[in-house]
DNA sequence: TAGCGGTTTAGTACAGTGTACGGTACTGTC
DNA sequence: GACAGTACCGTACACTGTACTAAACCGCTA
């Protein structure tokens, strides 16, 4: 005779982490507690500790899961295209999982997927002829831009095209009395324009950075 | 007759926030609890609630305090110098208070110092002749880079010149067996070199970005 | 079939968190 | 002397991560 409990999928580290990611996506990283996670998986809190040492290991694990979702760049490809693709993939992963960038600064031990990702990215730049030094510079620059963009995007109270206007307009109207004229100007003439999406700003900076890097590799003068 | 308690400085919102900043600096943002904060100030937890509505208001408040430490750019100055100076000032503030960038993505309501900072920065770009659109692009790009760099800097297990070598060397030696050759290469030929400081990477990206922006404003062809 | 040892799941308990609620002292005004 | 407002605090509650303990289940040998 099979009880209801026995029909439930068996626990596993994979399932714990996958469930943790889903929970964080739906309800925010603050809602990711051992108890809610256990409840969601149809088990009791302490059962999870058989698969993970502690909560920190869960946090490390879900960061690595985010990286595992990101397709790797191919070192033999055109470096600029590969880096542009990679940037967009990382950004979209960080938009799907807005909590991830917040964990990046706390967690120190990178997981295997994270290491593979870094390795593939570095290989692409080196294979394209970037010197070791320039590779380090370029990688720090690109990731800073991507992570920082994700931070700003996560901080926005709105998301997606045109939604900025609804949120921002009433706020801005309080400011029209002069203390912050430049912010109002940006809002009225840029952010509140129909079709505006902060995400579109990403391409501008990315192109500028990639242009700059191109100049440092190919340009003879 | 004055008791020991009466000699204590009177509480105030300012003092609560300043103490919260100091506590977070010394022991990390996780150690910033109502109880430890109260103890540090020589009071009881609930006394703080007379000056702040809740802990979120404290977090909002200390983010704004960080911005209040940053000297404002002057709109009449040379935009490139002003932006370079500002970038370094923001970065050093975020290095003094590594928890700040982590709060940025959660808190939505910017405080007065934050608003003044944004206003002065936008004014500098607009005064220099940047169009509204280009100003928005440039600001998103610059802040993304600065914030993202701070995220990476906060994630590093080491800090400052030459300390990277001590930490990284034993880790890298485990990797020399081939799975991550490019990472090892970067480590050995760049990070482990004497005098290395990740912070130095900041200037490279900043210059590249400012160069790119210059080209978009002045360059005739 | 009985018993055993390792694997997996649960129950209970504890210290620490934010903060709601209801006080208590002190100060100034009438 | 009565009253109101300011500043501060004690207690209590629901929630957190997780240590410790016990129970159930499993494939196995005898």
Tell me what you see in this structure.
The structure is a homodimer of 221-residue chains. Chain A has helices at residues 4-7, 13-27, 34-40, 45-48, 55-68, 79-96, 100-104, 112-127, 132-155, 163-175, 181-191, 201-217. Helices cover 67% and strands 0% of the residues of chain A. The model of chain A is unreliable at 1-7 (pLDDT under 50). Chain A contains twelve helices and no strands. In chain A, helix 10 (163-175) runs antiparallel to helix 11 (181-191). Chain A folds into three domains: 10-52, Homeodomain-like (Arc Repressor Mutant, subunit A); 64-156 and 201-216, Tetracycline Repressor, domain 2 (Orthogonal Bundle); 161-196, no CATH class. Chain A starts with a helix and ends with a helix. Chain A is an all-alpha fold and 221 residues long. Chains A and B meet through helix 7, helix 8, helix 9, helix 11 and helix 12 of A and helix 7, helix 8, helix 9, helix 11 and helix 12 of B. Chain A binds a DNA duplex (30 and 30 nucleotides) through helix 4.
